[in-house]
Write a structure and sequence with these properties.
With 213 residues, this protein is α/β, with parallel strands linked by helices. The chain is built from two helices and 25 strands. Helices cover 12% and strands 29% of the residues.
């Protein structure tokens, strides 16, 4: 079997995933990216665009793109072409033995995921994030650097928990939300949108008014 990992997305996030892959024993790592001006990402080569994935059919794949919508689209495309999407967990992450983790999910260094938790496909549990017991993390969610989910929290699909945000226990957050950096979520969130502050409240757009009458 080919011991090569193909990372889609030549970005800073991709560099971190490449480091995890090296620690997990991959001896060949290459990138694909639709920006044809890119030739390398860190010390690894960019060898083509996303459409070149079929040329690496014996390799493992993971998508290193921050946008949940794009990550989902590309991962579904890979799976539809019968390419092997893998899950990567940093050796210095602490993940309980009964935690279920979907394909295409990456768990970074220093993250803690406690018992009874389920993490969907294509998720990111980023550096130093903590996910306590009996959480349910929906597909393509992102638990950002240094954020903390208490026990029995539900995070909907494609929701982004911002850096340093805190969610107290027994909270449900619906799909397609953004929780701002440093926000504290103390009540259920049932409507998609961006939530900021302490306690977290939905961000509303201010209407511009004209001085002319």
């Amino acid at each position: 079997m080919d011991n090569q990992l193909v990372i889609i997305g030549a970005s800073g996030h991709g560099k971190v995933i490449a480091d995890i892959a090296e620690r997990l024993g991959y001896d060949r790592i290459v990138f694909l990216d639709d920006n044809t001006a890119l030739t390398e990402c860190g010390k690894h080569r960019v060898v083509g665009t996303v459409r070149a994935a079929a040329l690496h059919a014996k390799s493992d794949f993971i998508v290193a793109i921050g946008s949940a919508e794009i990550r989902k689209k590309i991962q579904n495309w890979l799976c539809g072409h019968k390419l092997r999407v893998v899950t990567l967990i940093h050796p210095n992450a602490l993940v309980a033995s009964d935690v279920s983790v979907g394909e295409g999910t990456v768990i970074m260094a220093g993250a803690v995921v406690n018992p009874g938790t389920s993490i969907g496909s294509g998720c990111i549990v980023n550096t130093g994030a903590t996910v306590d017991h009996d959480n349910v993390i929906g597909d393509y969610a992102h638990i950002s650097v240094g954020s903390h989910l208490a026990g029995t929290v539900r995070v909907g699909a494609q929701t982004w928990i911002g850096a340093g945000a805190v969610v107290i226990n027994n909270i449900s957050i619906c799909a397609l939300c953004t929780i701002g950096a440093g926000a504290v979520v103390v009540s259920d969130i049932k409507e998609p949108g961006t939530y900021i502050g302490v306690p977290a409240k939905k961000k509303t757009l201010l209407r511009k008014t004209s001085a002319c009458r």
